[in-house]
Each structure stands twice: as C-alpha cells, then as structure tokens.
Amino acid sequence: MDSTDILVAGGGTAGLAAAAAFGSLGLRVTCVDPAPAETPDGPDADLRTTAILTPGRALLEAAGLWDRLAPEATPLRVMRIVDARGTPVRRDFDAGDLGDQPFGWNVTNAVLKRAFAERLAGMPNVALRRGTGFAGRVAQVDEVTATLSDGSRVAARLLVGADGRDSAVRRACGIGVRTTRYGQKALVFAVTHDRPHGGVSTEVHASGGPFTLVPLPDHDGRPCSAVVWMTDGVEALRLKGLPDEEFARAVNARSAQVMGPLAPVGGRQLWPIVTQVADRVTARRTALMAEAAHVVPPIGAQGLNMSLGDLRTMIDLARARPDDIGEESWLAAYARAREPEIRLRAFGIDALNRASIGGLGPLRALGLRAMHGIGPVRRGLMQLGLGLR
Ligand SMILES: Cc1cc2nc3c(=O)[nH]c(=O)nc-3n(C[C@H](O)[C@H](O)[C@H](O)COP(=O)(O)OP(=O)(O)OC[C@H]3O[C@@H](n4cnc5c(N)ncnc54)[C@H](O)[C@@H]3O)c2cc1C
Description:
Shape: globular
Largest sheet: 8 strands, mixed
Strand content: 25-35%
CATH architecture of the domain at 2-74 and 105-179 and 276-359 and 376-386: 3-Layer(bba) Sandwich
Low-confidence stretches: none
CATH superfamily of the domain at 2-74 and 105-179 and 276-359 and 376-386: FAD/NAD(P)-binding domain
Radius of gyration: 21 Å
Bound molecules: flavin-adenine dinucleotide
Number of helices: 12
Structural class: alpha+beta
Number of strands: 19
C-alpha cells in the first residue's frame, strides 16, 4: 500500500491547485482523478473561463502557479453592470477606486488545467494519477486509508475531497447537501468584437439571468470576450442548438449592443446552475473543498475563488501546525473558518441570482444608482465581492 501526507481526490482546477499548494510546502501529495487529461480542442474540453480575483493570486503565486498563468491572463479593471430593461442604466465599478491592482485576471480553464498539470509534473513530491478515482475510505484516528477504483489503496494523514459537485468522498463520509435548483443553465461560448474590451467585464441584466462578457486575449487578431449567458434551461438548450447565423442574431439581441456587434466563435457548452452547500466540510481525517463543499451560480466570479479561500485556510493551518495536519482540532479549525463564510456567500449569490432572474427587481428597488452613487457603499460592495472583507 502507498503512503502519502495528503491524498487529493479530484484533478479539476481546485484539486490541481490543492496538490500544487500542499506540494509547495514540501509535503508528499498524491492526486487522483478517474478522468483522462483533457485535450484542449477535444469534445470534452472545458470551454469555461475563470476570473481569478486578487486574493486568489497570492495563493497561486506561493504554489508556483501564477508565473505560468500570467502570460495568458487578461486583467479585469472595471465591472460594468447594465440594467437593460426599459431605459438602460449603466454603472461602472472601477478597481482604481480601491488601489492600483485590477479586480482580477481572466484565464481559460484549459490554460488553468494545463499550467497546473505542468507545475505538478515538475514536483518530485507530488504524484498525479489519472485514470483512477477515489472509491472508499476507512478513517482511523491517525490516518485514513482510501481505496481507489483500480483496487489499489493509499494511506494518508489527510484526504482532501475536491472531486466535484457529486463528490464520492462526501458520500463516503455520509455528509448530506442542501441543493437549490433554478431551472436555469449557463450557456458558455466566446465572441469577437470590433471594439477593444479595455479590461471591462460587463453584466447585462434583462430577465432570466445575467449575460456576462469577460475579457479574453485577442482571437485571430480581433478583440475577444468569454460569454456566460444564464437563462431558463429549455431556452438554453434551444439556443445551443441554433444554426450559427440565428445564434449570432440571438446573442446580439440579448447583449443590448453593449460591446457593439458580437460574432460568436468556437463551441458552445451548457452548465447546470445550482446552489449547493454541504452540511459539513469535515469528517475524520477528511476535508471537503471547492464544488464538493459548495456550488454557486457563476455570478461575481465566486466559485473557484471560494475554493481558493478553502485552500488558503488549509495551507495556513498546515504552515502553522504541520504536525497536526488532518487531526481532529486541525479539521475543527478548518470547519470553523470556512463553514460560516461558505454559507454567507452562497446565500448572497443565491439572492443575487434570484434578483437577476426577475430582471434585477429587488436590486432596482434598492437602487443600482444609489448603490453606485455612494462612494463608501460602492467601495464596500467591491471589497465584499473580492473577499477582502
Ligand atoms: C459557467 C461557469 C462559469 C464560471 N466562472 C467562474 C469564474 O469566473 N470564477 C470562479 O472563481 N469560478 C467560476 N466558476 C466556477 C468554477 O469553474 C468551479 O468552481 C471550478 O471549476 C470547479 O472546480 P472543482 O475542481 O471543484 O470541480 P470540477 O471541475 O468538477 O472537478 C472535479 C474533478 O473531480 C473528478 N472526480 C470525479 N469523481 C471523482 C472520484 N471518485 N475520485 C477522484 N476524482 C473524481 C472529476 O473527474 C473532475 O476532474 C464558473 C462555473 C461555471 C459553471
């Protein structure tokens, strides 16, 4: 039987980041995932992009990951919210209000996964095993033994469940989830446009959910943005299946021309939208993180950034108490730090999503203009969104 310090179940963006971060502390790490490595242009390629917010960057730097991402990361300097119903209302939240750093950087998930896997390949103390997944666990006081789907077993001080929203680790621990469904899906694709995006990320609200444009590097010499279009599930399926020309017409009608004419490029992908929070984030010798612990609608770039928050807490605890990793009071400290924060953010994003489905109704009542117009309120909202307070 193999033995390691940390066994990470899940080689998605969160699991790979966890393997690199623990590995950078000099710990022995094994990361397992039943799925093969993605081929960037293959049918299974993840077309999503991830806006990494400022607090996440420091963690990625410490894990030796940021340098690999920086050349392909597009800075996000302005978050623009457009209420497109009736007479359009447009408000800009400018990172310049908070300091000289952008809000964050947008990176394609394909680049993220490739860069993370390359970093792990250069770490002798980290093993990435694809083609085999977590199947079961027996936890004792001082270690956990996991059985993998290929029949092999690995003993570890800590099992990290980063195996996604249907987490087998979570199920093996008997931890339940609370799930809210909205009947919505997110349609993900890219567009080119004539006008440079200038580092502006734009959320256009009408009804049914936001239509968000997020800056990407140029595509074939033309300015390019990623789009996340959240809408009713049946409508999303219809849109995904439209012929190219009709699809382009629908996209331009929904974008309210905020970036001028848009030309869709590349594939289209659908992602179901749910809010899901695990009842607990720990069990004996086991910690859940990322989508295994929390799934939120893709609003305000919170998903992976909350996951990096989970990871930062674990890494801080591992630095402060290296001998106690995975032990009961170490895990209790992790749960104390993360569970209230996860619930609060999931609650806030759920409320924002409901507001957006209704065409920003409650936000209109609160007044987009007023929220934006009062400097301290505006700056407070931006800091909250970034996880700086
Ligand atoms: C449309 C959309 C846009 C988004 N945009 C942003 C954004 O801008 N910013 C942001 O912060 N977040 C964003 N998110 C959220 C972010 O993409 C996710 O939080 C993140 O990618 C999920 O990471 P994960 O590693 O937890 O889950 P996954 O990516 O689902 O990875 C889980 C991994 O676990 C593996 N696995 C499954 N079963 C097992 C097993 N038994 N054993 C071991 N491994 C297993 C799977 O093969 C998979 O590789 C967005 C999400 C969506 C849907």
